Structures are given as C-alpha cells and as structure tokens.
# Entry
Amino acid sequence: GAVVSQHPSRVICKSGTSVKIECRSLDFQATTMFWYRQFPKQSLMLMATSNEGSKATYEQGVEKDKFLINHASLTLSTLTVTSAHPEDSSFYICSAIDRSGNTIYFGEGSWLTVV
Amino acid sequence: KNEVEQSPQNLTAQEGEFITINCSYSVGISALHWLQQHPGGGIVSLFMLSSGKKKHGRLIATINIQEKHSSLHITASHPRDSAVYICALLAQFYFGTGTSLTVIP
# Structure
C-alpha cells in the first residue's frame, strides 16, 4: 500500500546549524503534503502546507524564513529548520493525501533535538 | 477552548477489556478521523467517518453528526493496542490532544 517515508527519524544538531527533514511519498504522487509539529503531550499542530511547484502556505505564527519548505517533485517535500535553537526541539511529522482524497498517510516522524 | 476535545486523556485497561474513547467537536465537519500514534511517534489513520459506524477488526468507530460526537471502541483489548489515539478534523487541521491507552497483560 501507499507509504509516506520520512527521514531522518532522529537528529541531534548544534544550535545555529540547519537541519533538513525529507518526506517522500513512495508509491503515489502527492501534489500537497503537510508538515506538523508536536510538542510532548500536546496536539499535532499544522505548520505549513507544501504545494508541488509553488510556495508553501504557512500557518499563522510559523516563520517561513526559519522553516523552509521545498516541494520540488510530486514525491518529495523537505522541511529545513534554519539556525536551529533548543526551542525548536520537537517532533516533526509530515502527511500526504492520495489522489482519491480519501486516505491520508503520515510519515514516521522526525525527532529533532537542538543542543 | 480546543475545537476538538477528547476523553479520557489517559486510560489503563486490563487485557481483554472493552475500551471506549470519546471525542466531541465544536465545528461543522465533512469528516472526522481517528488516528493511532505509536510510542515511536508514527501515526496511522484508523478511520475516516462522515456518518454512522465503521468497523475494522476489533476497532469500531461511530459518529453522531447532530451531537458533534464520535467514539472509538476497542473490543478484547490487547497490549499491542497501547498507543495514543487522536481524534482529528483533518480538513480543518484540528486535532485532539489524544488519549494515551495502556493495556496491561
């Protein structure tokens, strides 16, 4: 069945560096992917909607220059956390909806720790 | 106030027990999703509901659109059911805070 793969699953980086997280739809094309953030014991929060071939749509309060999203192909969206700070440490997860619009698939998620 | 409220927040059950998780929402919807988040963080969509009831194995999900309420039931619970169950209105990107279920052998 359709799978969304996310990489890396865990990453530790130093403050001030940038980290890239990849989200791939493995056997279907996803014109739209979604990026979420989840703090411990809290709800998923939509960060942005990634649109293939165009600019991402960011939710209010999410800094587009800090969380760079690129959706260069129908199977790949990337989230780059730039100039990471410890407060960016969180669980980041992506999702994509198949062409029927009826099924949503989530990536495995990425645990980011900024030290 | 969160648009999606779940209860209970935490639930511990003995293996074999019947489990119910409730979800109430405050906005009009076209569909409601039940998601399962594993301890490692990965999320799986269990059900998408727009009306009535759906069953998949030991899992049953119901929704009452008029009352803005949905329930997820697990029959004959098993330790492998231990996870966080999230009620979500994905079209509006509203998520419940989840119900952490632990099933004890």
Q: What stands out?
A: Chain B has a mean pLDDT of 94. The interface with chain A takes residues 2, 4, 33, 35, 40-45, 48, 86, 88, 90, 93, 95-98 of chain B (CB under 8 Å). Chain B is about 0% helix and 60% strand.
